[in-house]
Backbone:
């Protein structure tokens, strides 16, 4: 847990009181982030495909558990007046799920606060980033994972108000990324992640 302290100390934009720190560590969202695989899909996948998805999900899990991102998420929850306990479970799914339009589902959340995040298949990179280098694809996956978690967390508060959720996702994502050096290439990749198309499929369960 020392890494999380260091990240907080580096976070000059935010003054953390020691009581807040203790509280955050105790209620840390990191503890509720886990990788889950559909055994049926795992059984059907080739070794190569399995290895690809396993590497992908480990990268997503590590990215979301990064102390700097975790402290950021806790600030977001505080700003939005949300209780971290409302996020019951964050499942990083190993295998993708296709939407009716053929695109991969990015994420979804239930009204019980269960968030599921899904990977992109191999074919996606050939289509979207045919000449993408490994570091560019890694950057894309990391940014997409952060944006997807922010998006689904916001859905637990704003329910099916997709427009509002998208607007705030972009705002918070940009606020987090401002801490990083972003060259033109990275900015181009971020633009690919925030197209005009919806980030996820609205869940029926969200409509109360
Ligand atoms: Zn959405």
Residues:
């Amino acid at each position: 847990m020392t890494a999380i302290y260091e990240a907080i100390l580096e976070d000059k934009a935010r003054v953390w009181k020691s009581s807040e720190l203790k509280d955050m560590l105790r209620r840390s969202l990191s503890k509720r982030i886990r990788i889950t695989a559909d055994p049926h899909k795992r059984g059907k996948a080739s070794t190569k495909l399995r290895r690809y998805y396993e590497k992908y999900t480990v990268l997503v899990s590590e990215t979301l558990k990064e102390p700097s991102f975790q402290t950021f998420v806790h600030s977001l929850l505080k700003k939005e007046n949300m209780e971290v306990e409302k996020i019951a479970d964050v499942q990083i799914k190993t295998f993708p799920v296709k939407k009716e339009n053929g695109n991969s589902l990015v994420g979804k959340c239930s009204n019980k606060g269960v968030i599921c995040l899904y990977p992109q298949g191999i074919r996606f990179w050939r289509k979207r980033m045919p000449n993408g280098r490994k570091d560019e694809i890694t950057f894309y996956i990391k940014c997409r994972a952060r944006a997807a978690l922010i998006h689904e967390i916001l859905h637990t508060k704003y329910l099916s108000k997709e427009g509002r959720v998208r607007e705030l996702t972009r705002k918070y994502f940009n606020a987090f990324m401002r801490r990083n050096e972003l060259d033109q290439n990275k900015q181009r990749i971020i633009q690919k992640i925030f197209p005009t198309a919806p980030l996820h499929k609205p869940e029926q369960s969200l409509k109360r």
About this structure: Strands lie at 33-36, 89-93, 107-109, 114-117. Residues 27-197 form one domain. The chain is about 55% helix and 10% strand. The longest strand covers residues 89-93.
